[in-house]
Amino acid sequence: MDPMWTREVKLSQRKLDPLGLSRVSQWLTEELLPGITTVTSVARNYSFYTWAISNLLKMNKITGRNQFAQELTKREAAFVIGSILHEASKTDRLNPHGYDKAIRFIKKVNDGKIQVAFNVSESNPEGFYGLYYRTAMFKLGLTIRSRLFDDLAPLGRQLAAAFESNIKDTDYFKYYIQDDEVDKTLLAKYGERVCICRLADPSKERELLRNIMFSNNLQFLKLERSRKESLLLVLSLIKQSSDFGIEFTTDTFGDAIFFGQATNGKSTFNFKFKSFEEIVAHWHLFQLHEYFTFAMESLLHALLNELKKKDEGMSFDDFLSLVCNGGTSVSEALKISSIGTIKETISLLLKDYQLSELNSDASRKFDRLCNLEKEVSEKKLFSALQKAIKSNNLQETVGNAIGILVLNYIRAYHLLNDVDTITLWFTNRALQELSSVSFAQYIRSKTSMWTMNDLIRYCFKIVRDQHNSIALDKLLYGNDTYRFEEKGNSLKFKIDIYPNYPSQRSSKISSVLSILEQLGLIETSGNIKRLTHDGTKILEDWLHERVD
Ligand SMILES: [Zn+2]
User: Fold this and answer.
1) Rounded Cα–Cα distance for residues 547 and 520 (Å)
2) What is the pTM (predicted TM-score) of this model?
3) pLDDT in tens, 267-280
4) Cα 387 off chain centre by
5) How far does the centroid of ligand 1 lie from the alpha carbon of residue 113, in Å?
6) Other C-beta atoms lying within 10 Å of the C-beta of residue 453
């Protein structure tokens, strides 16, 4: 497992999301994968915490949050140490959350004993439960949250009992749970049962956790089956990818849901989505917003890069005169020779699709047909954009970013008129924020008058205003997040957009892959992921159910 996912990420909200574009993407992934987050990548933590809560409520009279936290983190430290000891001799180790801190205590072994009365997290009093899992477990229907201490829902109690039956024979469980330090040999024995790798073995615990992940969403959530169908979609894509003989990564997922295709750099492969049409349509909107985000943030990055060069600052108009070159950078990126209005440019792009002008129908067709085999697609523009950013090429950065926004507009156009459930689910939320649809809504009435220069100017104006409004918003909470500041007529550089731009948003698919692997549903050999016998069965059972 990638250690990045198990190391504690100190989420410094201060530095993230300068244009507020994550609001829509976070909302989307929350709706599509409730109960799974970018950081809940260790499947066994879900069942461990149910057991820890049930056990501490049984063994200790909990009268307040502090005591709940102390008892929880003590059990967690033993769980983490047990896991580390069990994995120590392996080459392909799984690292539990809290590895960095726990390893320091393991090294301080004293008279054969290791201290367990400490918190493996550096930043949350309730350990990684409070930091990562608490809300996720609530959304799976496992816990009941309250002020003094959290309790278990009936489903959580079942999972706790199943976990307990896997560790009940250990001496740690029988005699030492309440101790502040425990013999290393006993913790190593406990590790043989409690280790995060042991979830993959057949047991009631594994069965229950699979059922929980693949169940319908809780009733208070808007979408009924999104988590279950998203997980099944990932299984189906992994199966198809292994049939194609290609790697399955989070990028493959992004290409699949957006273009319906995957590529290994040489060939292109078509995915089949029978029985997955609805969930794919939801995820498609996620990727639409991702491309919008990359493009807008790249424009901010381009602006900052120019400001950086001038200690005395620069006026916004002077900056615009640098980037407005009559639209040639955009037409080069889009491989057309237009220098007319946006509407004329779009008509040239649509010609390749035997479409004449942009209307809802053309937008829908373009959205379906613009794929990885086309000479111009978001994927190709994005990789050109990344190169341009690396080589600090201002014109190409702007050209490719605006190119992505033009394609994004064409695809989003029909969303402004459509009233089907999936579109309304998205637009009701996305129109309230800066997003593909609010952008499309604004420029729709301008395309027959505006030239590419007008569009470039408008996009940078959005970037400047949105940056200022988000930074002001965060200032109200005491965080100074200004990337540049405006004094009089002059803009001055302050800090970079991200330490390394471009950095991509997460679709939570990394966590999904870890969880599916730890549940024994997928396996990786070489770089190829494939379904296990059980993974195949879950997918096939569901497909049969859909046909009936
Ligand atoms: Zn292990």
Assistant:
1) 26
2) 0.94
3) 999 999 999 999 99
4) 23
5) 21
6) 16
> How many Å lie between the centroid of ligand 1 and the Cα of residue 518?
11
Q: How far is the CA of 193 from the centre of ligand 1 (A)?
A: 8
The secondary structure of residue 169, as a DSSP letter, is T
Helix/strand/coil (H/E/C) assignment for every residue in 397-453: HHHHHHHHHHHHHHHHHHHHCCCCHHHHHHHHHHCCCCCHHHHHHHHCCCCCCCEHH
| Among candidate residues 227, 281, 284, the one with its CA nearest the CA of residue 508 | 227
Q: Mind listing the pLDDT tens digit for each residue in 113-154?
A: 999 999 999 999 999 999 999 999 999 999 999 888 999 999
pLDDT in tens, 411-442: 999 999 999 999 999 999 999 999 999 999 99
Encoded tokens for 185: 């040999």
Q: Taking a C-beta distance cutoff of 8 angstroms, is the pair 38, 511 a contact?
A: yes
Note residues around ion ligand 1 (Cβ under 5 angstroms): 86-87, 195, 197
pLDDT confidence band for 17 (50 / 70 / 90): confident
Angle 329-333-336 from CA coordinates, rounded to 5°: 95
Residue 468, φ and ψ in degrees, nearest 5: -65, -40
Average pLDDT over residues 68-94: 96
